[in-house]
Amino acid sequence: MKKNILVIFGGKSCEHDISIITALQAMRAANEDKYEVFPLYIRKKMYSGGALRDLSAYADFSRIESSLKTVEFFDGGILVGRSRAFKKRVFIDAAVVCCHGGIGENGGLQGLLEFYNIPYTSPGVSASAVFMDKVLTKEVLKAKNLPVLPYFTVKDTDIENARARGDLTYPLIVKPASLGSSIGIGVAHNIDELKTACVVAAEFDSKIIVEKALTDFFEINCAALSDGKNIIVSECEKPVSWEEFLSFDEKYCVGGGMRGLKREYPADIPENLRKAVRNFTRTVYAHFGMKGSVRIDFLVDGTDGGVYINEINTVPGSLAYYLFAENGITFRDLIDITVETAKREKARADKKQYIYDSKVLDGDFSGKTGKA
Question: For 150-212, which CATH class?
Answer without folding.
Answer: alpha beta
